Amino acid sequence: MKNSFFCMIFIFLAFSCNKKAEKPVDDPHRGYIKIEADESFSSVIQSLTEAYTNQYPSTKIDFVTKKEDLGFMDLLNGKIRVAVMSRELSPAERAAFEKKFEWQPAKFAGDGVVFIVPKNSEKSSITYEEIQNELNSEKKNIIFDGTNSSNLNFVAQNLGKKPSELQFSVISGNTNLIEQLNKFPDKIGVISLNTISRPYGAEAEKLRGLIKILPVVKDGKTYEPSLQNIKNMSYPFTRILYFLTNEPYYGLGNGFIRFSCTQIGQIIVDKEGLQPYNTYKREVQMK
What we know:
Layout: H1 2-21, E1 31-37, H2 42-55, E2 59-65, H3 68-76, E3 82-85, H4 91-100, E4 106-118, E5 126-127, H5 128-134, E6 142-144, H6 150-158, E7 169-170, H7 174-180, E8 188-192, H8 202-208, E9 211-214, E10 216-218, E11 221-223, H9 227-231, E12 238-245, H10 252-261, H11 263-271, E13 275-276
Helix pairs in contact: 10-11
């Protein structure tokens, strides 16, 4: 009887230790995670991660830039905790994700794919049909920042095509594309709005000074990639950025996502020159 009693205590203690060992090693206020996003969104994600870790010094978030498709695969395979997406997943991708994790996309910003030419170009706009035609032409007059990039993926999806079905040139990286575009005066570059959207950022100002942004003409109407046109989604290449996580509990990944989608995070999105997805009314009481 005595031996049985001690055996029961041992089993209880062993079970308790195992339960403690299974406790998550992080929570919203402490721990370490890795986040991946396309280079096109690096400015806004860098600002959000810096703000979060400054507010919670016991957290560490490694932000790694990686092509959108590869980032999604890393998330699916558990190599990272959070990925940033801008396009809709294919049915196969969505099914693969939901087989492993809960589908809870967290939308946080409105961005746009922007068509640009060198500053001294005589071209002043581009039509939706022209974009379609150029991407079917062997001249490859449209330059993207890379294969598997979010900009290429989104434009292809917008046109109802696969990226492999399009004809285009490549200059790696949004910033590098802007800086090299004047060497190709007859070409049209494609970048993310976030690359140049920070209103008072020295780097963004310098880059804006090198290029001319082309309004897109569709159905006889001209649309600038302005925040108002992104807010009402009238700009033809408006896209919504969203987070995906494979985190099954309320840990650092979900804490960061919640932070980014609530008021303080949305203020950061606004300061980045992007359209906050969640807007908050300001109420001023007069006495």
